[in-house]
Design a protein that fits this description.
The protein is an alpha/beta fold. It has four domains: 6-211, ATP-grasp fold, A domain (Dna Ligase, domain 1), CATH 3.30.1490.20; 217-341, ATP-grasp fold, B domain (D-amino Acid Aminotransferase, Chain A, domain 1); 361-475, Glucose Oxidase, domain 1 (3-Layer(bba) Sandwich); 482-783, Phosphoenolpyruvate-binding domains (TIM Barrel), CATH 3.20.20. The protein has 29 helices and 29 strands. The strands form five sheets. Strands 14-21-20-16-17-18-19-15 form an eight-stranded mixed β-sheet. An eight-stranded parallel β-sheet has the order 28-27-26-25-24-23-22-29. A six-stranded antiparallel β-sheet has the order 9-8-7-6-12-13. The radius of gyration is 29 Å and the shape is elongated. The structure holds phosphoenolpyruvate (PEP) and magnesium ion (MG).
């Protein structure tokens, strides 16, 4: 290929990585192989070098990068300086003109195609268009970064530089090319190069300008299994542009196909809430809610799945190694947008690698199971795309918007948190091993380290622990409760927080749901409830609540599902879009949460009640309502009055409270006098408030003991008083998943126990055994 500054993609191939980077070379290669790749051109790495040299900014630029990258403030400053230097320099005139003329030609090519579609055979004569129409015919393109290192051309810098979507017009393209170049000096990219020992001066950036596909649906495909390398193609897809799938901001549909047998093995349909699309008026890429009728609709039909598999095979053959392919579909046409080798397949040599001995990190075993995989550090949602099927997600703490990536992860490791933090609750529901509260995971681990996570013992090892079986599909796909279920007089229920866990929860054959945490569902929405209200979309918010709660009450019908009213600490809600108004509290755990929040913010409580009413209207009489964090019977009274005043017939459903503040336990008879159907022990909070131990603080985790005699004494008192009054008692805190606690509670006469998904089976066995022991004991005593 001629060493030009701006070249057509079809002019380059895999031998040109040094000129157009891995991404550009791969696109060229695929176009040559006649794969359906959108056309475009590349502003080469040489053009970038000329830009640096001819502007004379080299010294200033590279000197500005000589900083201590471990200091976040300094690093951010360096990023700012370097980007300013790039943005203020001008692209050499001949290169700029080449970009403009290639873009004009790209527009002409597209126009030709469209005219052909309209039946025009000869399209060279564009005089058929009026001037203003010609003016308007400017295509939308994506401007993508494709970095390359001079001495190591195939080094991967994937995902570290920026991509700009839906760009139109010559000047905007020129600006975006410069922005791509500037993104070579983003903080993350600088940090990565320093830590990996790359010389900044030797890393160049090619900007690929490629026709945009206004995808109706899009996603990713692994041409072979990304963890095991087996001949199984994995496809993930969602509505709109593929960025939602790549970034992990939506749970996509999942399909797996046995390539050899040409058989679709699995189709998992997810609830797809948002889509990335082009705004018809501004041309900008925006996020919009997925239309109701498409949310739970299957994205790909069998024909599309098999066609994609076929393309995956061609790409894999082309490169001779399994590929991670981005695809899009528009007007029934499939497009291949990008392809790169899968780096996560565990090669045979991995088995012989360093055998783990002593633990690298210690924390709390928050979700049992062992997993081995590559670590991926995630600091915020923009990095979720790094986590591929079978990787180990490492974060300071997980947040609700990380759930899609948590679903792909083989295990989760966090710096912070206790047994009832977000990471712990969600990973247990997903059946994904987790170690939380390690304090130093994000400091000691780096991307792509091979580690073993022991979620039982709370340990993380470097390398492969010999007891770990070869990588198997993520545990969330393997749950099976094949054993026959013992019948127990004490009901054994299950806790649910995320709708995605419903199927696993149902498979436990639990006697119902003893706690459905709706705040996890709300935190998973694209914006804060107040934002919906502000935008006049309160009805949309209610619909979201209804559909999420309905997933669970429907799956368990007619078994009871106790839905808890909102209980979210302000710190978690503040992180949502539109959540800036959340009060900043010195101690959110003791603050504006639970029923006290709903009684002050009745605007929101009203929306919850609307959702409950709608569910009752739809026939879900199995729904009960549970009020969290009550400390005085007047709160129960006011909550009931409010629900009644809004037309919710609470006499027809079960109403109960959580006992999680010692005050509520001590005056339980006053609550009984106020009128309720059940109480449920929230031992996560009851323990922290009784013992003055912050449940999320790993520094005092050693003092957190849900079997502390004071906690047990409160529980015993409440069960005794409730039994006298005929009020049902239950437990939904983490302690209920501990068989020892379960035994004690059955002996005390509790009505039901609600455990985590992974604990239902063992708790049920313990309950059955304890009940039999009690019966035996009673029978023996009668004989004597
Ligand atoms: C509890 O406090 O035990 C409980 C189940 O509620 P949460 O963990 O949501 O505070
Ligand atoms: Mg609680």
């Amino acid at each position: 290929m001629a060493n030009d500054s701006v070249v057509w993609l079809e002019e380059v191939g895999k031998e040109d990585i040094a000129i157009v980077g891995g991404k550009g070379a791969s696109l060229g290669e695929m176009i040559r192989a006649e794969l359906p790749v959108p056309g475009g051109f590349a502003v080469t790495a040489q053009a970038f070098r000329r830009f640096i040299d001819e502007n004379g900014i080299s010294d200033e630029l590279f000197r500005s990068l000589e900083v201590d990258v471990d200091d976040a403030d300094i690093l951010r400053k360096a990023e700012k300086n370097a980007k300013k230097i790039i943005m203020e320099a001008s692209i050499p005139a001949d290169i700029e003109e080449s970009i403009r003329s290639k873009y004009r030609e790209l527009c002409q090519r597209e126009l030709s195609n469209q005219l052909k579609g309209k039946g025009f055979k000869e399209i060279k004569d564009l005089r058929i268009l009026k001037e203003d129409e010609e003016e308007k015919f400017e295509v939308f393109v994506a401007v993508r970064s494709s970095a390359t290192a001079e001495d190591l051309p195939d080094a991967s810098f994937a995902g570290q530089q920026d991509t700009f979507l839906n760009i139109r017009g010559e000047q905007n393209i020129i600006d975006s090319v410069k922005k791509c170049w500037a993104s070579l000096y983003g903080a993350r990219a600088i940090y990565y190069r320093v830590k990996q020992g790359f010389d900044h001066r030797k890393v160049n950036l090619c900007a690929v300008v490629q026709m945009m596909v206004d995808a109706e649906k899009a996603g990713v495909m692994f041409s072979s299994h990304p963890a095991t390398g087996e001949p199984i193609t994995i496809i993930e897809g969602s509505w709109g542009l593929g960025e939602t799938v790549v970034s992990g901001s939506v749970s996509p549909d999942y399909y797996s196909v046995d390539k050899q047998a040409r058989k679709i093995l699995e189709r998992k349909i997810a609830t797809k809430n948002i889509m990335h699309t082009k705004d018809m008026h501004t041309g900008k890429t925006i996020d919009i809610p997925v239309p109701e009728n498409k949310k739970n609709a299957i994205v790909l039909d069998d024909d599309e799945i098999m066609k994609l598999v076929g393309f995956g095979e061609v790409v894999e053959d082309l490169y001779g190694t399994p590929q991670d392919v981005e695809w899009a579909i528009k007007n029934n046409e499939i497009y291949i947008l990008q392809s790169r080798p899968i780096t996560t397949i565990k090669k045979k040599k991995d088995v012989k690698e360093k055998v783990a001995t002593s633990a690298l990190l210690e924390g709390l075993g928050a979700s049992p199971g062992m997993a081995y995989g590559e670590s991926k550090l995630v600091s915020d949602v923009t990095e979720l795309g790094k986590v591929k099927e079978g990787d180990i997600l490492v974060a300071v703490m997980t947040t609700p918007d990380m759930v899609p990536a948590m679903k792909r992860a083989a295990a989760i490791v966090t710096d912070e948190g206790g047994m009832t933090c977000h990471a712990a609750i969600v990973s247990r529901e997903l059946g994904c091993p987790a170690v939380v509260g390690t304090r130093r995971a994000t400091e000691l681990l780096t991307d792509n380290m091979k580690i073993t996570v022991d979620g039982e013992k709370g340990l993380v090892f470097e390398g492969k622990k010999d007891t770990v079986a070869p990588i198997t599909p993520p545990p969330q796909m393997q749950l099976s409760f094949a054993k026959s279920k013992p019948i127990t007089a004490t009901e054994v229920k299950v806790n649910v927080s995320i709708p995605e866990a419903t199927q696993r929860a149902v498979e436990t054959q639990a006697d119902g749901v003893g706690l459905l945490r709706i705040e996890h569902m709300i935190l998973g929405l694209p914006k804060h409830p107040k934002q919906y209200i502000k935008e006049g979309k309160a009805d949309e918010y209610v619909d979201e609540l209804v559909s999420r709660i309905q997933t669970v009450v429907d799956a368990f019908y007619p078994k009871p599902v106790w839905v808890r009213t909102l209980d979210a600490p302000t710190d978690e809600f503040r992180a949502m879009e539109g959540g800036e108004g959340e009060p900043i509290e010195p101690n959110p755990m003791l603050g504006y949460r639970g029923i006290r929040r709903d009684l002050l913010d009745t605007e929101h409580f009203d929306l919850e009640v609307k959702a409950f009413k709608e569910l009752i209207k739809r026939g879900y009489s199995n729904m009960g309502i549970m009020i969290p964090l009550v400390q005085h019977p007047s709160e129960l009274k006011r909550a009931k009055e409010f629900m009644r005043s809004k037309g919710l017939d609470i006499d027809k459903i079960d109403i109960g409270i959580m006992v999680e503040i010692p005050a509520a336990a001590l005056i339980i008879n006053d609550f009984i006098a106020e009128g309720l159907d059940f109480v449920s022990f929230g031992t996560n909070d009851l323990t922290q408030y009784t013992l003055a131990v912050d449940r999320n603080n790993e520094h005092v985790a050693h003092l957190y003991n849900e079997m502390h005699p004071a906690v047990l004494k409160l529980i015993e008192y409440v069960i005794t008083e409730c039994n006298k009054a005929g009020v049902k008692t239950s437990i939904c805190g983490q302690a209920g998943s501990n068989p020892k606690v379960a035994k004690r509670l059955v002996e005390l006469g509790i009505t039901s126990i609600s455990a985590n998904i992974d604990a239902v089976e063992t708790v049920r066995e313990m309950v059955a055994r304890t009940e039999m022991q009690l019966m035996l004991k009673a029978a023996r005593e009668r004989k004597v």
